[in-house]
Write a structure and sequence with these properties.
Residues 70-90 are annotated as: Disordered. The protein has 131 residues and is mainly α. Helix content is 67%, strand content 0%. It has helices spanning 26-75, 93-130.
């Protein structure tokens, strides 16, 4: 009987990577950059124009409806209603400001009066507790 002797498999060593140092010359980068930037600007402008066109397409029906509504509003006869008693006469900005200031000062005075009444009540209660 013969014994089988296993054959030794030679171990393969991984290949050593060959690295080359690649230095880009600065001149090429400077020459290419304006070209790249110019194309980026063109791409941005193209996208912007497309977005504007699509927006206008979607807004076109709404603008048409708005124009029709304006035309109908102008065509509708305006009816003059007699002023009602509750309708206030038109006031300018200064008059409105004065009225608002007067109303706010009146509200502040009312609040001050309420606060003074409460303070008097508290003082009387405190006075009664001490006695």
């Amino acid at each position: 009987m013969r014994r089988r002797i296993p054959k030794k498999i030679p171990v393969q060593q991984p290949p050593v990577p060959v690295t080359e140092e690649y230095n880009k010359p600065a001149i090429i980068e400077e020459e290419v950059m304006p070209f790249v930037l110019r194309h980026e600007d063109e791409i941005i402008n193209y996208i912007k124009e497309k977005a504007i066109k699509e927006t206008m397409k979607s807004l076109a029906p709404l603008l048409e409806k708005l124009e029709e509504a304006v035309k109908q509003q102008e065509a509708a006869p305006t009816q003059d209603f007699p002023p009602t008693a509750s309708a206030a006469p038109a006031m300018n900005y200064e008059e409105q400001l004065k009225q608002l200031q007067e109303a706010s000062t009146a509200k502040v005075k009312e609040k001050e009066i309420k606060i003074m009444e409460r303070m008097n009540k508290l003082n009387t209660r405190l006075g009664n507790i001490r006695i």
